[in-house]
Protein backbone atom coordinates (compact mmCIF):
# COMPACT_ATOMS: atom_id res chain seq x y z
CA UNK A 1 0.00 0.00 0.00
CA UNK A 2 2.96 2.31 0.61
CA UNK A 3 3.99 2.09 -3.06
CA UNK A 4 0.44 2.90 -4.14
CA UNK A 5 0.35 6.00 -1.88
CA UNK A 6 3.70 7.31 -3.12
CA UNK A 7 2.73 6.87 -6.77
CA UNK A 8 -0.64 8.60 -6.16
CA UNK A 9 1.27 11.58 -4.75
CA UNK A 10 3.28 11.77 -7.99
CA UNK A 11 0.03 12.01 -9.96
CA UNK A 12 -1.26 14.78 -7.67
CA UNK A 13 1.82 16.91 -8.28
CA UNK A 14 1.62 16.39 -12.05
CA UNK A 15 -1.94 17.69 -12.25
CA UNK A 16 -1.24 20.46 -9.72
CA UNK A 17 1.45 21.97 -11.96
CA UNK A 18 -0.82 21.71 -15.02
CA UNK A 19 -3.12 24.32 -13.45
CA UNK A 20 -0.72 27.11 -14.43
CA UNK A 21 -0.82 28.86 -17.79
CA UNK A 22 1.70 27.68 -20.40
CA UNK A 23 2.37 28.32 -24.07
CA UNK A 24 1.09 25.65 -26.55
CA UNK A 25 4.59 24.15 -26.84
CA UNK A 26 5.06 24.07 -23.08
CA UNK A 27 1.60 22.60 -22.57
CA UNK A 28 2.24 19.96 -25.24
CA UNK A 29 5.58 19.05 -23.71
CA UNK A 30 4.06 18.78 -20.24
CA UNK A 31 1.24 16.60 -21.59
CA UNK A 32 3.70 14.31 -23.40
CA UNK A 33 6.01 13.99 -20.39
CA UNK A 34 3.06 13.32 -18.08
CA UNK A 35 1.69 10.69 -20.48
CA UNK A 36 5.09 8.98 -20.70
CA UNK A 37 5.35 8.91 -16.91
CA UNK A 38 1.83 7.58 -16.37
CA UNK A 39 2.24 4.89 -19.03
CA UNK A 40 5.54 3.88 -17.44
CA UNK A 41 3.84 3.10 -14.11
CA UNK A 42 1.64 0.37 -15.62
CA UNK A 43 4.01 -2.53 -15.04
CA UNK A 44 4.75 -1.30 -11.51
CA UNK A 45 1.08 -1.30 -10.54
CA UNK A 46 0.56 -4.73 -12.10
CA UNK A 47 3.52 -6.35 -10.32
CA UNK A 48 2.49 -4.82 -6.98
CA UNK A 49 -1.11 -6.00 -7.41
CA UNK A 50 0.06 -9.55 -8.21
CA UNK A 51 2.03 -9.60 -4.96
CA UNK A 52 -0.98 -8.66 -2.80
CA UNK A 53 -3.20 -11.74 -3.20
CA UNK A 54 -3.13 -15.21 -4.79
CA UNK A 55 -6.57 -14.40 -6.23
CA UNK A 56 -5.08 -11.77 -8.53
CA UNK A 57 -4.20 -12.92 -12.05
CA UNK A 58 -4.02 -11.26 -15.46
CA UNK A 59 -7.70 -11.75 -16.31
CA UNK A 60 -8.96 -10.37 -13.00
CA UNK A 61 -6.64 -7.35 -13.01
CA UNK A 62 -7.51 -6.57 -16.63
CA UNK A 63 -11.20 -6.68 -15.70
CA UNK A 64 -10.73 -4.23 -12.82
CA UNK A 65 -8.78 -1.94 -15.11
CA UNK A 66 -11.39 -1.94 -17.87
CA UNK A 67 -14.37 -1.64 -15.51
CA UNK A 68 -12.74 1.53 -14.15
CA UNK A 69 -11.94 2.93 -17.60
CA UNK A 70 -15.17 2.09 -19.46
CA UNK A 71 -17.34 5.01 -18.22
CA UNK A 72 -14.71 7.55 -19.31
CA UNK A 73 -14.28 6.03 -22.76
CA UNK A 74 -18.06 5.97 -23.25
CA UNK A 75 -18.15 9.68 -22.42
CA UNK A 76 -15.34 10.24 -24.92
CA UNK A 77 -17.43 8.50 -27.58
CA UNK A 78 -20.51 10.55 -26.73
CA UNK A 79 -18.83 13.96 -26.85
CA UNK A 80 -17.01 13.13 -30.11
CA UNK A 81 -19.75 11.17 -31.87
CA UNK A 82 -20.15 13.59 -34.81
CA UNK A 83 -18.27 12.74 -38.02
CA UNK A 84 -18.34 13.90 -41.62
CA UNK A 85 -17.74 10.67 -43.52
CA UNK A 86 -20.11 7.80 -44.22
CA UNK A 87 -19.27 4.74 -42.13
CA UNK A 88 -20.05 1.29 -43.47
CA UNK A 89 -20.70 -1.97 -41.64
CA UNK A 90 -17.23 -3.11 -42.73
CA UNK A 91 -15.69 -0.06 -41.02
CA UNK A 92 -17.48 -0.97 -37.78
CA UNK A 93 -16.28 -4.58 -38.00
CA UNK A 94 -12.67 -3.48 -38.54
CA UNK A 95 -12.97 -1.04 -35.61
CA UNK A 96 -14.30 -3.81 -33.34
CA UNK A 97 -11.50 -6.13 -34.43
CA UNK A 98 -8.82 -3.46 -33.94
CA UNK A 99 -10.15 -2.52 -30.50
CA UNK A 100 -10.19 -6.14 -29.35
CA UNK A 101 -6.72 -6.73 -30.80
CA UNK A 102 -4.94 -3.58 -29.67
CA UNK A 103 -6.49 -2.79 -26.30
CA UNK A 104 -7.82 -6.16 -25.13
CA UNK A 105 -5.77 -9.05 -26.53
CA UNK A 106 -2.44 -7.22 -26.59
CA UNK A 107 -3.00 -5.97 -23.03
CA UNK A 108 -4.02 -9.41 -21.78
CA UNK A 109 -0.86 -10.96 -23.24
CA UNK A 110 1.17 -8.22 -21.57
CA UNK A 111 -0.49 -8.79 -18.18
CA UNK A 112 0.13 -12.55 -18.52
CA UNK A 113 3.78 -11.97 -19.37
CA UNK A 114 4.26 -9.73 -16.34
CA UNK A 115 3.40 -12.68 -14.11
CA UNK A 116 6.65 -14.29 -15.29
CA UNK A 117 9.22 -11.56 -16.07
CA UNK A 118 10.42 -8.30 -14.53
CA UNK A 119 8.76 -4.94 -15.16
CA UNK A 120 12.01 -3.60 -16.65
CA UNK A 121 12.30 -6.31 -19.28
CA UNK A 122 8.58 -6.11 -20.10
CA UNK A 123 8.89 -2.40 -20.93
CA UNK A 124 11.95 -2.95 -23.10
CA UNK A 125 10.27 -5.73 -25.11
CA UNK A 126 7.04 -3.74 -25.57
CA UNK A 127 9.07 -0.76 -26.78
CA UNK A 128 9.92 -2.77 -29.91
CA UNK A 129 6.47 -2.24 -31.45
CA UNK A 130 7.56 0.63 -33.79
CA UNK A 131 10.15 -1.68 -35.35
CA UNK A 132 7.45 -4.29 -35.90
CA UNK A 133 5.20 -1.81 -37.71
CA UNK A 134 8.08 -0.84 -39.98
CA UNK A 135 8.90 -4.46 -40.78
CA UNK A 136 5.23 -5.31 -41.39
CA UNK A 137 4.73 -2.25 -43.62
CA UNK A 138 7.81 -3.16 -45.61
CA UNK A 139 6.48 -6.68 -46.14
CA UNK A 140 2.91 -5.65 -46.96
CA UNK A 141 3.76 -2.77 -49.29
CA UNK A 142 6.96 -4.27 -50.76
CA UNK A 143 9.10 -1.36 -49.57
CA UNK A 144 12.84 -1.86 -49.25
CA UNK A 145 14.39 -0.79 -45.97
CA UNK A 146 17.52 1.36 -46.14
CA UNK A 147 20.75 0.70 -44.27
CA UNK A 148 19.92 3.25 -41.57
CA UNK A 149 16.64 1.48 -40.78
CA UNK A 150 18.29 -1.95 -40.63
CA UNK A 151 20.96 -0.51 -38.33
CA UNK A 152 18.27 0.91 -36.04
CA UNK A 153 16.50 -2.47 -35.97
CA UNK A 154 19.80 -4.19 -35.17
CA UNK A 155 20.38 -1.78 -32.28
CA UNK A 156 16.89 -2.21 -30.81
CA UNK A 157 16.75 -6.00 -31.04
CA UNK A 158 20.40 -6.42 -30.06
CA UNK A 159 19.80 -4.32 -26.94
CA UNK A 160 16.66 -6.26 -26.08
CA UNK A 161 18.39 -9.64 -26.46
CA UNK A 162 21.23 -8.40 -24.26
CA UNK A 163 18.79 -7.48 -21.48
CA UNK A 164 16.92 -10.79 -21.87
CA UNK A 165 20.04 -12.96 -21.72
CA UNK A 166 21.26 -11.22 -18.58
CA UNK A 167 17.90 -11.64 -16.83
CA UNK A 168 17.52 -15.21 -18.14
CA UNK A 169 20.74 -16.22 -16.38
CA UNK A 170 19.22 -15.45 -13.00
CA UNK A 171 15.70 -16.69 -13.73
CA UNK A 172 14.53 -19.93 -12.04
CA UNK A 173 14.71 -22.92 -14.39
CA UNK A 174 10.99 -23.66 -13.93
CA UNK A 175 9.87 -20.05 -13.65
CA UNK A 176 8.52 -19.63 -17.16
CA UNK A 177 10.90 -16.78 -18.01
CA UNK A 178 11.02 -17.46 -21.74
CA UNK A 179 7.26 -17.99 -21.88
CA UNK A 180 6.76 -14.62 -20.21
CA UNK A 181 9.13 -12.87 -22.62
CA UNK A 182 7.35 -14.55 -25.56
CA UNK A 183 3.93 -13.42 -24.31
CA UNK A 184 5.08 -9.81 -24.02
CA UNK A 185 6.64 -9.93 -27.48
CA UNK A 186 3.37 -11.34 -28.83
CA UNK A 187 1.66 -8.38 -27.17
CA UNK A 188 3.98 -6.01 -29.03
CA UNK A 189 3.17 -7.81 -32.31
CA UNK A 190 -0.58 -7.52 -31.68
CA UNK A 191 -0.26 -3.81 -30.89
CA UNK A 192 1.82 -3.25 -34.02
CA UNK A 193 -0.92 -4.85 -36.15
CA UNK A 194 -3.44 -2.61 -34.41
CA UNK A 195 -1.37 0.44 -35.36
CA UNK A 196 -1.39 -0.62 -39.01
CA UNK A 197 -5.20 -0.72 -38.94
CA UNK A 198 -5.75 2.62 -37.22
CA UNK A 199 -4.90 5.31 -39.84
CA UNK A 200 -7.83 4.49 -42.13
CA UNK A 201 -10.18 4.15 -39.15
CA UNK A 202 -9.10 7.49 -37.69
CA UNK A 203 -9.94 9.17 -41.01
CA UNK A 204 -13.40 7.61 -40.90
CA UNK A 205 -14.29 8.07 -37.24
CA UNK A 206 -12.03 10.91 -36.11
CA UNK A 207 -9.14 10.44 -33.69
CA UNK A 208 -11.01 11.10 -30.44
CA UNK A 209 -14.11 9.17 -31.44
CA UNK A 210 -12.04 6.22 -32.67
CA UNK A 211 -10.04 6.11 -29.44
CA UNK A 212 -13.21 6.11 -27.35
CA UNK A 213 -14.96 3.49 -29.48
CA UNK A 214 -11.99 1.11 -29.79
CA UNK A 215 -11.23 1.38 -26.08
CA UNK A 216 -14.89 0.81 -25.13
CA UNK A 217 -14.98 -2.33 -27.31
CA UNK A 218 -11.84 -3.59 -25.57
CA UNK A 219 -13.33 -2.87 -22.14
CA UNK A 220 -16.46 -4.87 -22.95
CA UNK A 221 -14.39 -7.72 -24.41
CA UNK A 222 -12.22 -7.85 -21.29
CA UNK A 223 -15.19 -7.89 -18.94
CA UNK A 224 -16.84 -10.70 -20.95
CA UNK A 225 -13.57 -12.66 -20.84
CA UNK A 226 -13.44 -12.37 -17.07
CA UNK A 227 -17.08 -13.39 -16.58
CA UNK A 228 -16.69 -16.44 -18.83
CA UNK A 229 -13.26 -17.58 -17.62
CA UNK A 230 -13.73 -17.13 -13.87
CA UNK A 231 -15.90 -19.43 -11.74
CA UNK A 232 -18.09 -17.32 -9.41
CA UNK A 233 -16.64 -14.04 -10.76
CA UNK A 234 -18.60 -11.76 -8.41
CA UNK A 235 -17.53 -13.78 -5.37
CA UNK A 236 -13.87 -13.47 -6.35
CA UNK A 237 -14.18 -9.70 -6.75
CA UNK A 238 -15.89 -9.34 -3.37
CA UNK A 239 -13.06 -11.23 -1.66
CA UNK A 240 -10.32 -8.99 -3.02
CA UNK A 241 -8.29 -6.80 -0.65
CA UNK A 242 -9.15 -3.11 -0.90
CA UNK A 243 -5.61 -2.34 -2.12
CA UNK A 244 -6.16 -4.52 -5.20
CA UNK A 245 -9.19 -2.41 -6.06
CA UNK A 246 -6.97 0.64 -5.65
CA UNK A 247 -4.47 -0.71 -8.15
CA UNK A 248 -7.22 -1.77 -10.56
CA UNK A 249 -8.84 1.66 -10.52
CA UNK A 250 -5.46 3.34 -10.90
CA UNK A 251 -4.68 1.14 -13.90
CA UNK A 252 -7.98 2.15 -15.46
CA UNK A 253 -7.94 5.87 -14.76
CA UNK A 254 -4.36 7.01 -14.17
CA UNK A 255 -2.58 4.54 -16.47
CA UNK A 256 -5.17 4.21 -19.27
CA UNK A 257 -7.65 7.08 -19.57
CA UNK A 258 -5.59 10.07 -18.46
CA UNK A 259 -2.33 9.28 -20.35
CA UNK A 260 -4.29 8.46 -23.52
CA UNK A 261 -5.89 11.91 -23.42
CA UNK A 262 -2.63 13.62 -22.48
CA UNK A 263 -0.74 11.91 -25.31
CA UNK A 264 -3.28 13.05 -27.90
CA UNK A 265 -3.11 16.58 -26.51
CA UNK A 266 0.68 16.47 -26.75
CA UNK A 267 0.61 15.27 -30.36
CA UNK A 268 -1.86 18.01 -31.31
CA UNK A 269 0.44 20.72 -29.91
CA UNK A 270 3.89 19.30 -30.67
CA UNK A 271 3.42 16.92 -33.59
CA UNK A 272 4.20 13.23 -33.75
CA UNK A 273 7.98 13.67 -34.03
CA UNK A 274 8.45 15.71 -30.85
CA UNK A 275 6.00 13.52 -28.95
CA UNK A 276 7.92 10.42 -30.03
CA UNK A 277 11.16 11.90 -28.70
CA UNK A 278 9.55 12.56 -25.34
CA UNK A 279 7.90 9.11 -25.25
CA UNK A 280 11.35 7.52 -25.55
CA UNK A 281 11.95 8.26 -21.86
CA UNK A 282 9.21 5.75 -20.99
CA UNK A 283 11.41 2.65 -20.62
CA UNK A 284 13.94 4.51 -18.49
CA UNK A 285 11.14 5.77 -16.23
CA UNK A 286 9.76 2.24 -15.86
CA UNK A 287 13.18 0.86 -14.99
CA UNK A 288 13.79 3.59 -12.40
CA UNK A 289 10.36 3.01 -10.85
CA UNK A 290 11.00 -0.75 -10.83
CA UNK A 291 14.26 -0.16 -8.95
CA UNK A 292 12.50 2.08 -6.41
CA UNK A 293 9.24 0.20 -5.85
CA UNK A 294 10.01 -3.41 -6.87
CA UNK A 295 13.69 -3.63 -5.85
CA UNK A 296 14.66 -4.75 -9.35
CA UNK A 297 18.34 -4.40 -10.17
CA UNK A 298 20.03 -4.07 -13.57
CA UNK A 299 23.70 -4.69 -14.20
CA UNK A 300 25.91 -2.68 -16.55
CA UNK A 301 25.20 -4.95 -19.55
CA UNK A 302 21.46 -4.57 -19.04
CA UNK A 303 21.71 -0.79 -18.89
CA UNK A 304 23.72 -0.90 -22.11
CA UNK A 305 21.01 -3.05 -23.69
CA UNK A 306 18.33 -0.56 -22.61
CA UNK A 307 20.23 2.32 -24.18
CA UNK A 308 20.71 0.43 -27.45
CA UNK A 309 17.02 -0.51 -27.54
CA UNK A 310 15.87 3.07 -26.98
CA UNK A 311 18.29 4.52 -29.54
CA UNK A 312 17.23 2.02 -32.19
CA UNK A 313 13.50 2.50 -31.63
CA UNK A 314 13.87 6.28 -31.49
CA UNK A 315 15.74 6.30 -34.82
CA UNK A 316 12.98 4.26 -36.46
CA UNK A 317 10.15 6.28 -34.93
CA UNK A 318 11.58 9.63 -35.98
CA UNK A 319 12.49 8.49 -39.50
CA UNK A 320 8.96 7.07 -39.90
CA UNK A 321 7.46 10.37 -38.76
CA UNK A 322 9.60 12.35 -41.24
CA UNK A 323 8.42 10.11 -44.07
CA UNK A 324 4.79 10.92 -43.22
CA UNK A 325 5.51 14.62 -43.51
UniProtKB/TrEMBL annotation:
Pinpoint the EamA domain residues.
27-164, 179-317
InterPro entries given in the database record: Diverse_Substrate_Transporter, EamA_dom, EmrE-like
Q: Which domain of life is it from?
A: Bacteria
* Record-annotated membrane-spanning stretches: 12-39, 59-80, 92-118, 124-142, 149-165, 177-197, 209-228, 240-264, 276-294, 300-318
Q: Which UniProt keywords apply?
A: Cell membrane, Membrane, Transmembrane, Transmembrane helix
Q: Under the cellular component aspect of Gene Ontology, which terms does the record hold? A: plasma membrane
Q: Where in the cell is it found?
A: Cell membrane
Q: Name one Pfam family in it.
A: EamA
How is this protein positioned relative to the membrane? Multi-pass membrane protein
Protein known as: Putative membrane protein
Amino acid sequence: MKGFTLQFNYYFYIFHFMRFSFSPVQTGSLCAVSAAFLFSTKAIFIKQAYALSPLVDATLLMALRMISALPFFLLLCWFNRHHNQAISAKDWLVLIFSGLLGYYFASWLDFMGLMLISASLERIILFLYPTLTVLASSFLYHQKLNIKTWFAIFLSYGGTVLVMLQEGKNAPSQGGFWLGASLVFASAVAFAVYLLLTPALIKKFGSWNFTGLASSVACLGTIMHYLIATPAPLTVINELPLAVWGYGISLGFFVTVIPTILLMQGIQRLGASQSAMIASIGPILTILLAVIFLNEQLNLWQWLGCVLNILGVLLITLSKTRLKH
